[in-house]
């Protein structure tokens, strides 16, 4: 009996050992599979450094209509913290604590002033109801904004932080009309809806590190939300594309879009989030040593540059031995090719009749203005506003003092599609290199001169040139009679992803939203969330 009992004990011990090994084995295997992925940094997914995380290595189920957390900014979209907050609703609503406890019930249209609660820093209130929650203390283009879902309000030391918790498909109802005119053709609006959904879902998967776990804010930092009221046409565009996303490797892509192209788009390297081999982060002062016109580019990009032409013209451009060699995105990176293209009168491009397809700008170039603008951009991105070091024969980042009289300005590097990527400014004191389309648009705009558009209409320039797709015509020459610069350009915006007016023209010519998205986001796949 004792022997049998002993054998049973031995068997049970062995069985327990085997069971423990079997349970632990998958953990070892899983770690071996994911560790190399976690250590590999994929620069093709910039401009968000958080894109490349351990999450990318794991399978992610794209659930239809997830809740979003949207950070609501102040009247001018400039601040996260509100000095005053008043809340109301078009139907009866409730005030809840962070744990869900109901503190109070309110009637429709009753206005609640949060100052009356005398909240302590760190306390949280939630307002929700059957209707839309409004913020009478906040102003948008539509007037007082109203929000689906609930408002979660945090008391901060300086004021209040507001988070709107809203289902994806409800969020899109006021994003699409805020980003594209609702009078545009339905297929263009549907393309915009898919872009907006993909962009938002990208930040669900890749949280950007905003306060209180927000996925995005409601400004142009991400995509404009609830600035324009929902409309019947944009609601239909959202409904007919429900759950549809643009993906790459089964993950939603941050699908960029802009107003108008010059006939070509470019890729996301224009933003220079990674420069000189280093990741840029706020507060850093990278030491840059750079050769002007460096051929270094991203070998793998998400958004391929494309020709925004009518379908027959695209084929002709790629096959005609004369025009084909000249007018391709890659060929337009050459100055002579881009100059020939931007001054041509080719009408085969979708946006040839759009206001911003071509424009002319004559601005004032003074040393004081250029110096002020160089300093402003140096403060923001010291790795992209460089000064020539004659001894070392390289450009370096160093403090900018008085720049002297300007003697020459020229574009010395373009990216595919023709966008200016490096601008040389020579003065009697130093030579400066301005890198990146945004910086170039800022530095060369005087903020007050006029722009003549494609249709002959005249508008004042803003703090940014319409785009960086331009040539200096004639070549810049300093003059004692006054310093001006004339630019012949095209397009409005950064030029990455989908041209909204290109989408409009494509829809007018009968293209479906799927065909429009394929034109601008070649290589990405449409996927419906479960």
Write the layout of secondary structure elements.
Layout: H1 2-39, E1 67-72, E2 81-82, E3 86-89, E4 93-97, E5 102-106, E6 112-113, E7 124-129, E8 133-134, E9 146-147, E10 150-155, E11 160-167, H2 168-179, H3 186-205, E12 216-217, H4 232-240, E13 244-248, E14 251-252, E15 257-258, E16 274-275, E17 278-279, E18 289-290, H5 311-319, H6 323-326, H7 335-342, E19 359-364, H8 367-380, E20 385-389, E21 394-396, E22 406-414, E23 420-427, E24 431-435, H9 437-444, E25 450-453, E26 458-460, E27 470-472, E28 484-489, E29 498-499, H10 500-508, H11 513-520, E30 525-528
Parallel strand pairs: 1-12, 15-29
Antiparallel strand pairs: 1-11, 2-11, 3-6, 3-8, 4-5, 4-7, 7-10, 8-9, 10-11, 13-14, 13-30, 16-17, 18-21, 19-25, 19-28, 20-21, 20-24, 22-23, 23-24, 25-26, 27-28
Helix pairs in contact: 2-3, 2-4, 3-4, 3-10, 3-11, 8-9
Description:
Helix content is 26%, strand content 23%. It is α+β, with helices and mostly antiparallel strands and 530 residues long. It folds into 2 domains: 67-252, no CATH class; 271-489, no CATH class. The strands form 7 sheets. Strands 1, 2, 4, 5, 7, 10, 11 and 12 form an 8-stranded mixed beta sheet that branches. It has a 6-stranded antiparallel beta sheet with strand order 18-21-20-24-23-22. Strand 20 (385-389) and strand 21 form a beta hairpin. Helix 3 (186-205) packs antiparallel against helix 10 (500-508). It is globular, with a radius of gyration of 27 Å.
